[in-house]
Amino acid sequence: MYLHLGASTVIHQSDVLGIFDLDNTTASWRTRDFLARAQREGRVVSVGEDLPKAFLLCRDQEGEITVYLTQLSPATLAKRFLSDTFDPV
After folding, report:
1. Which of 11, 17, 22, 84 could form a disulfide with 57 if both were Cys (CB 3.0 to 4.6 A apart)?
2. Residue 59, C-beta contacts closer than 8 angstroms, at least 6 positions apart
3. What are the residues whose beta carbons fall under 8 Å from the beta carbon of 36, sequence distance 6 or more?
4. Residues 6+ apart with CB under 8 A from 28
5. pLDDT at 44
């Protein structure tokens, strides 16, 4: 199955390692450091133009980690992740 992240970005659900609330998790210096390092290494993909609300950690077939920043809420992403159908809306 696939997970729609917004702005025509779709990923395989099997690649998702975690869905995180950006407001809650960036209170930790470790998370901020991780995201800054991922940005420097070019592993961050910003989905859309709006202020991001969530980020997803994904691993591809080669084992590379990518961070997706999305304006969708973590609750919406989790609901889509757990549904049995692909809903691109």
Report:
1. 17
2. 15, 17, 65, 66
3. none
4. none
5. 97
Token pair listed for 69: 């920043």
Which one-letter amino acid corresponds to residue 20? Answer: F
d(CA 18, CA 55): 8
Scanning the chain, the segments in alpha helix (DSSP H) are 22-25, 29-40, 74-82
Q: What is the mean pLDDT of residues 46-66?
A: 94
Is residue 87 over pLDDT 60?
no
**Which two structure tokens, joined as six digits, stand for 26?**
């960036």
Instruction: Tell me the percentage of the chain whose pLDDT exceeds 70.
Output: 93
Count Cβ atoms below 10 Å from residue 61 Cβ, excluding itself. 8
